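Q&A log
Question type: sequence-to-structure
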Amino acid sequence: MKRALLIALVASGCATDLRTDFPFDGDLPAGDYVTFTDQGDGTWDLRVNAGEPQSWVFVDLDDRRQVPGVEAVGAAGWDVAFQRFRIISNGGVSGVGPVEVAVLPGQDFAALTTAPATGYVQDAADGPDDNQDVDSAFLAGDGWYLYDLFNHGVNPRDIVYVVHGDRGFWAMKILGYYDEVGTAARFRVDVKAVAPP
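Response status: OK
Response body:
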């Protein structure tokens, strides 16, 4: 009996991966994971489907587009990226770009027209905490979300992020993490350009 179990385990370990994307390269399957909709008041409604558990969705705020993974890795052409509940920026340890982020808790998004002159941070190597994730600018302070233990849900905090990219300043406010039917990792973000300090 033990010998049969051992043979079965060895045989299953040698089987080829039946996934169509084997070997997995970390890029997303074909599809639109990012949409920008002009809201007519100088702001954009950014929707990001970040539900692929092993793939980042890279976003270029300047050109309002999704950047394919093969184009994004090792390049400065994206600003922020999303994967499940994680958000990183293209600077510091997360990318080769110059992106830095100012975290503005309680800031009125509509009233913000000019980027702050100071207070920017870049993604840093993982510090002493309970995980091995990058210490993203979006996790500064209390982080971008509050986890509701009672309802087991992710709720965005009242924070405006000013993203200083290679071509300008963008204000972002995360409004939701679920789509209309309750699917997780479906970010809804207000985005607008703001003037330099």
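Response note: The first strand starts at residue 34 and ends at 38.
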